Amino acid sequence: MTQMQEQEIADETARAVDAASRGCPEYRANPHPLYQHLRENAPVCRITPPHGVHSYLITRFEDAKAALADPRISKDMYAAIDAYRSIFGDSSIALDDNMLFADPPKHTRLRRIVSRAFVPRRIEALRPRIQEITDTLLDNCSTLQPVDLLSAFAFPLPLQVICELIGVPEEERPEVQQWCSVVARTGFSKKDKDRLAEAENTLREYFEVLIARKRKAPEDDLLSVLIQTSDEQESLTDGELLSTLWVLLFAGHKTTAYLIGNAVYTLLTHPEQLRQVIDSPDLLPNAIEEIIRFEGSVENATFRHALEDITIAGTLIPKGSLVQIAVTSANRDPAAFEDPDTFDIARPGVQSKHLSFGTGPHFCLGAPLARMEMQIALASLFRRFPELSLALPADEAKWLTVPFPAFRGLTELPVVLDPSR
Ligand code: HEM
Question: Out of the domains of life, which is the source (predicted)?
């Protein structure tokens, strides 16, 4: 390649990244052409989103998979505190004293303690409650035409499920939901950050009271088990306990909520494959894995930072730099998936390959719960409303506009549940 051609590609990359960083709507509606360009031309690309802190974005499958498990790329955000604080503010830092933002040996200890409470028996025992919660939400939706499926179903379902798991009493959930929705939807302006801090403080105070109550009167829920474990064996500090509740609430809530929205949208825009799933429900588990690959709800894994100078795909990531791993891009890499931009519910081997739940030591702890929720949610929705349709043209759907965000999801999903009414 000549120097001039190289310069042209570099300019094109800079233009595309800049447009994406400004959150231009075409990019948000469909970020995949940009990721394709980056995989082909700048697989490790230095980006500067509007929060002003630059990071290195990794877009190819093999690089992403290796980086997710690379001990030289740290998840201990306390160590990168200045860069991280300037993006997320102070109160988030305190709430990040949990496994998601820790390296071994702390990560190993925190994950071990939570895994002891997060056993398959406890998850499986939630199945009838998830079905009940789903049915009630669908009952409530059924009188609304059209209905925003995100706010009426996709968000409340995982929130209620995670509250059920943790042990938040039913009557206190609406308030928790209200504060969570503030945290879920904030941006990076000063006003957004203030609202975020207020919501975080309120939730933190609520959890402190809940912990004290469960300590006095334990029940059969995950929080009571975590408290008992902390008191008896290997322990979580009070800060770690609080922060663990926080990570479970958010890791288990927004991810699944946006994924339900993405799933319904993807199936409605591929009606022949939706029909196959409705006619043969045993196709659903693989269809869900393909949805998670094709239009997953995690666009970029959580921030990391380089503990030393690291060279990936010929690009030097200097020690101390923030690193982002574009899971969405990795899942569409033709080097890993044949015909990656085609949605195919029968795609073989997709479950064991996509990176939507991460990989390595931080592999999603809640993946079995998320899969169960998705299956119950989608099976119940389409069984009850087999003629469900979008209430707006598919290309007018509104996607989150934050550039290079953690989440890929819709801001609303207006649907007609039953066109015959
Ligand atoms: C970690 C995705 C649902 C709990 C992760 C990671 C990803 C992910 C990508 C790794 C992050 C990284 O390495 O930077 C998802 C998706 C979900 C989902 C796409 C839904 C479809 C859940 C649920 C829970 C949960 C329902 C719990 C109730 C966690 C926890 C971690 C985690 C605790 C941290 C694990 C660790 O650091 O060792 N998740 N998640 N997730 N997830 Fe999930």
Answer: Bacteria
| Ligand 1 in reach of 324 Cβ (< 6 A) | no
Measured CA to CA, the distance from residue 381 to residue 142 in angstroms comes to 11
CA 23-26-32 angle, 5° bins: 95
Nearby residues of 82 by Cβ (< 8 Å), 6 or more positions away: none
Ligand 1 atom with the shortest distance to the CA of 110:
38
Ligand 1, atom nearest to 370 Cα: 26
Mutate to test the pocket of ligand 1, among 236, 254, 266, 357 (most ligand atoms within 8 A of CB): 357
Q: 298 alpha carbon to ligand 1 midpoint, in Å?
A: 9
Q: Are 306 and 330 in contact (CB under 8 A)?
A: no
Above 0.95 for ipTM, yes or no?
yes
Mutation pick for ligand 1 pocket among 108, 119, 249, 255 (CB with most ligand atoms within 8 Å): 255
Q: Is residue 113 lining ligand 1, measured as CB closer than 6 Å? A: no
Mean pLDDT per 10-residue interval, the chain, length 421 residues: 78 79 77 93 86 86 98 84 60 70 93 90 94 96 86 95 94 89 68 81 91 94 87 77 90 93 98 96 97 96 93 95 95 98 96 96 96 98 94 91 82 89 70
Domains identified in the chain and CATH numbers: 3-416 (1.10.630.10)
Residue 21 structure tokens: 């960083």
